[in-house]
Task: inverse folding
């Protein structure tokens, strides 16, 4: 700011223009939040898609589709998840590709299905560690006075691990020792 003021000399218009350019060049907390959320989301999407691939290979297509949709919740442009759900990239974005045959049911039954379900549950359970980065993002948002964004981050942390320490309290779901 001091450098801009020196270069502007006594011209108030130049000082104002310099300050406006400086403010436009700086990334604000909301943009920083979006970048942080997107980065966490891309990692989460990859992990959901990995589970979807495991399930597709095991012929558990319904569960695989659910994981692909979860991947898209985390990263709406996850190309592999979109393709697995029957989309293709068109001129105006993603569109349904009617030529792709879609499987909508789980094809394993009995003991095979139970074995796969156990492995599936283990992999989903491993996603609990994703709650930590969302919890940290929620605290960062609170510190930067982004209340709506902090609530979104805390809720996402609870989606991955309902027992995430502090997230429930931050959202007002738990009372403190004084009853507040």
Result:
């Amino acid at each position: 700011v001091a450098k801009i003021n020196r270069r502007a000399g006594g011209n108030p218009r130049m000082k104002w223009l310099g300050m406006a350019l400086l403010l436009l060049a700086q990334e604000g907390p909301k943009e920083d939040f979006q970048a942080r959320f997107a980065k966490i989301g891309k990692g989460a999407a990859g992990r959901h898609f990995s589970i979807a691939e495991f399930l597709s290979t095991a012929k558990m297509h319904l569960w695989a589709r659910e994981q692909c949709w979860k991947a898209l919740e985390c990263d709406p442009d996850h190309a592999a998840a979109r393709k697995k759900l029957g989309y293709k990239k068109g001129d105006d974005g993603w569109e349904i590709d009617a030529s792709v045959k879609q499987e909508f049911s789980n094809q394993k039954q009995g003991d095979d299905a139970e074995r796969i379900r156990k492995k599936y549950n283990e992999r989903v359970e491993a996603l609990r560690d994703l709650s930590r980065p969302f919890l940290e993002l929620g605290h960062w948002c609170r510190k930067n006075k982004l209340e709506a964004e902090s609530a979104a981050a805390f809720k996402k942390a609870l989606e991955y691990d309902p027992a995430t320490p502090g997230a429930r309290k931050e959202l007002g779901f738990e009372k403190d020792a004084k009853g507040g």
Remarks:
- The two ends are 44 Å apart (CA to CA).
